[in-house]
C-alpha cells in the first residue's frame, strides 16, 4: 500500500481516494498497484457492493500519469521503466473496465490523461461544475492512451478526434453532453451522494435523484463545425479545412493544432480509426501499448515535456517538424506488433 492512495471500506462501499494533492493526484506506479490490489480483494468481498473512486484534498481529481518518471526513463534507461509503468497502468485500466461491481468515479476538478483512464471505465461517471476534462497528450509528444483510442473513437460527430488532436479542455456540461459523464451533480451534492452510496442505496437511484441540469454545452454549440473540420483521416486535410474557414473558432483551433506534435497527431488519428475495428478493450490496450513502447523513446516526447512542463518555454522543436515529414512508414513502425514475449496481455 502507499500513502498516495487512501483505501478503505465504508459501509457497502470500497472507497479509493487519490492522495497526491501537490501533483494534482497524478498516478504513480505504486498508486496503480494499490488500486489494483484493492479491487482484486473487493471483487470477492460480499460486504462491498459498489466502488467509489475520488480524490482526497486538492483542486483536481487526477491530472494524469507520472510524466516525470516517463521522461526520465526516455532519457536514461531506453524506456525500460517507462514501459513498465505503461504496462501496469494499462492492466489497471483493463481491470476497471471489466470489473463486475459498479464503480462510481467522481470527476470533480481536473480530469486529464491518466485521470481519464481510471474514470472512463467506471459504469457511473459524475461530472460537476468543477470538471476540467482533457486528453492533452499531443502537446507533449505522447498520444491519448489509457484507453483513449477506445473512448474517443466512439463519441458521436468526430468529437473524439477533435479532443484527441487539439487537447481541448471541456467542462462538466460538455462531458455530460458527449457521453463522457453519465451524471451531472453540483459539487456541493457529492458528500450526500457518497453517504447514500455508503449506506447501501443503488448508484443509479442516488445519482439520478441528485443530478441537475447543467449549463448549456459549448461543445454542443460547436458540434456541427467540429464534425465538418475533423471529418478527415489525414492531418493535412484537417489543417486545410480549418485554414479555409476564417471564423474565429476555426482559426483558434488551427493555431492550437499547429502547436502540437505532428507525429502524435497522426498517431492519434490512426489510433482512433484502428480502435473502431478492434473486438474488445483488451485489444485496444494491446495496440496502445505497442504505440507507447515506440513513442516513449521517439524525440517528441522528451522534447514536449521539456517545453511544456520542465522549462515551460512552450516552444517545442518537433521532429519531424511538419505533418508532411511524418511518413507513412514511420506511423507503420509505431503501430507494428512487438516481439511476442513483449506484447501486452490482460492478467
Keywords:
17 helices; alpha/beta; 4-stranded mixed beta sheet; 347 residues; 2-enoyl-CoA Hydratase, Chain A, domain 1
Strand content: 5-15%
Can you count the helices? 17
How many strands, what sense, and barrel or not for the largest sheet? 6 strands, mixed
What overall geometry do the principal axes of the alpha carbons give?
globular
Alpha carbon gyration radius: 20 Å
Distance between the termini: 20 Å
Structural class: alpha/beta
Major β-sheet strand ordering: 1-2-3-5-7-10
- In the predicted model, the low-confidence regions spanning at least 5 consecutive residues are none
Any overview of this molecule?
The relative contact order is 0.12. α1 links the parallel β2 and β3. α1 packs parallel to α3 and α6 runs antiparallel to α14. The protein is an alpha/beta fold and 347 residues long. It has a single domain, classed as 2-enoyl-CoA Hydratase, Chain A, domain 1 (Alpha-Beta Complex). The protein is built from 17 helices and 10 strands.
